[in-house]
Amino acid sequence: SQTIHQWPATLVQPVGSPLSLECTVEGTSNPNLYWYRQAAGRGLQLLFYSVGIGQISSEVPQNLSASRPQDRQFILSSKKLLLSDSGFYLCAWSVGGAYNEQFFGPGTRLTVL
Amino acid sequence: KNEVEQSPQNLTAQEGEFITINCSYSVGISALHWLQQHPGGGIVSLFMLSSGKKKHGRLIATINIQEKHSSLHITASHPRDSAVYICAPSGTYKYIFGTGTRLKVLA
C-alpha cells in the first residue's frame, strides 16, 4: 500500500532563516506531487505541483521554491523565511489520470517568529 | 464569484441529527472530491465522485453533473464527525477547493 511521509511535524524558525521541508511517497511510481499551504483560519492554497522528476509548476509567486530530485521525493525550500510564511504545509500525491484523487500527508506546522 | 461555493460555512448540530452540506461549482470537472480535515489539520479523502451517489457507512455523497451540484450527507451524526468538510472539484492535475464547512456536533 502507498504511504506518504512529511517531516518535521512542527517547526519554529526565526525570520530570515532558511527552510527545507521534505515529503516522500512509498508504494507507487511516478506520482504527481503537490505542496499546499494553509494559513491560520484559511483554506488550502496550492503552491507547487510536479508531474515528474525535475518538473515543477508554481501556482503562486512567493518566497518559496520546490524541487523533485527523485521520483518520490518532493522538497519545499526557502532561502529567507518571512513572517507571512507561517502556516500548515501539506504534501499530497496522486496517480494522475482523469480523476486524480489526491492523498495527503500529515502536514508540517511552521511558525516563523 | 468563487468557482466553488459551499454552504453552510458553519454548522452546529445535536448528536443524531441528519446533516447536509452543499457544494455548487461553475467549472468543468472530471471528478468531485469530498475531504475531511480534522481539528489537528490532517486531511482525509472521503469520496471521489464522477456521477450518481456513493455511500460509506453513515456518509452519503451525491453529484448532479448537469446542475453542477454535489451534496454530502451525514446520517446519525456523532461528535467525532466534528471537522471541516471541503468540496474539491478537480481537473486533470489540480483541485479547486471550496471554502469548507465547519461542523460541530454536540453530545
Structural description of this entry:
The complex is a heterodimer of chains A (113) and B (107). Chain A is mostly beta strands. Helix content of chain A is 0%, strand content 58%. Chain A contains no helices and 11 strands. In chain A, the strands form 2 sheets. In chain A, strands 2, 4, 5, 6, 9, 10 and 11 form a 7-stranded mixed β-sheet that branches. In chain A, strands 1-3-8-7 form a 4-stranded antiparallel β-sheet, with no helix packed on it. In chain A, a hairpin with a 7-residue loop joins strand 9 and strand 10. Chain A is globular and about 40 Å long. With 107 residues, chain B is mostly beta strands. Helix content of chain B is 0%, strand content 57%. Chain B is built from no helices and 10 strands. Chain B has a 5-stranded antiparallel β-sheet, with no helix packed on it. In chain B, strands 2-10-9-4-5 form a 5-stranded mixed β-sheet, with no helix packed on it. In chain B, a hairpin with a 4-residue loop joins strand 7 and strand 8 (69-74). The radius of gyration of chain B is 13 Å and the shape is globular.
